[in-house]
Amino acid sequence: MHYLLPIQLNQIFTAETLMTPRSEWMHYNLATVEHQARDAHHSFDVVPVEDAGRVVGVILQSSREYRPLNEEWLISQDTSIPHLLDLFVRMGQQAYLVVHQQQIVGIVTPADLNKLPARVYVYHVIGGLEMALAERIREMYRNNPDEVLQLLGNRAPHVRDSQGETTTGNVEVDDVYYLDLSDLVTVLQKSDALRVKLGYTSRKAAEKALGGIVDLRHRVMHTVRPLILKQRGDEGLEQLQERLQIATAAIAALAESPAPTDAVLSIDPSVAQTA
Q1: What residue spans of the chain are helical by DSSP H?
Q2: Where are the domains of the chain?
Q3: Mean of the pLDDT values across residues 93-103?
Q4: For residue 248, what pLDDT is reported?
Q5: Domain 13-109 bears CATH identifier 3.10.580.10
Q6: At what angle do helices 203-221 and 181-190 cross, to 10 degrees?
Q7: 115 with 18: CB under 8 angstroms?
């Protein structure tokens, strides 16, 4: 195995890597919060409110509603990206205050999932799936590599052309090396054994689930294009969560390892402040 499993990535890419640090965030003062919120000219959905250096609540800018600080607004800085994404989808909150050692150290919003660390996380998950699929296909068709090209149909001549160019350069590798993610998914769709391994009962089911992973790979490579544009629908939070779950489950099945889970941290808001 030459790739990081999602459970390993979850320990690297966390809320800490995405958040806006407290030293850089915009905030209102409790004494003048109504005036500041009314006259604000910014695009932030949630703004922290401080009183004498302590975070005491937040303002929902759309309604100018003040919400006192409580546990619902707090997450640990070690919260993984999948867990954070799940919180945004299930709870529908527009932001969380990030806590480390009982101190509020930053704020994270759905828009932060468009930052580079989130893109790198998604790319690693998809790359892990690509490598896991390639390894399993290589194992299954080691004694009959031509069958892989037969499964590719019209794509086979293009793969052969690429193979010929590499061989001419005195570099020789197996057929699977020349397959991109969409090719690997095609092989999976047409291989009964692989489909069963991943829990898909038909080609159509595999295509519906994994076709979205191919689309996500294309999107994550376009660094100027946001991963997240809205809550639901195409390019939304729920779609990203679903596709990452599909990719993670597929990697676990191919690696014959359990899917990762995250523990939910409970934090006392009364002490979640700066010293």
Answers
A1: 6-12, 15-18, 33-38, 81-91, 116-140, 146-152, 156-168, 181-190, 192-198, 203-221, 237-255
A2: 13-109, 116-255
A3: 94
A4: 92
A5: yes
A6: 170
A7: yes
For residue 221, the tally of other CB atoms under 10 A from its CB is: 11
Rounded CA separation 92/209 (Å): 25
CB 109 within 8 A of CB 94: yes
- Other CB atoms within a 10 A radius of the CB of residue 209 amount to 20
Q: Long-range contacts: 194-197, Cβ < 8 Å, 24+?
A: 194/136, 194/137, 194/140, 197/136, 197/253, 197/254
Read off the pLDDT of residues 113-134 as tens digits, 9 standing for 90 and up: 999 999 999 999 999 999 999 9
Is the pLDDT higher at 240 or at 162?
240
**Which single residue is written with the structure tokens 């294009």?**
225
Dihedral sign for Cα atoms in the order 108, 109, 110, 111 = negative
- Under DSSP, the state recorded for 199 is T
CB 117 within 8 A of CB 38: no
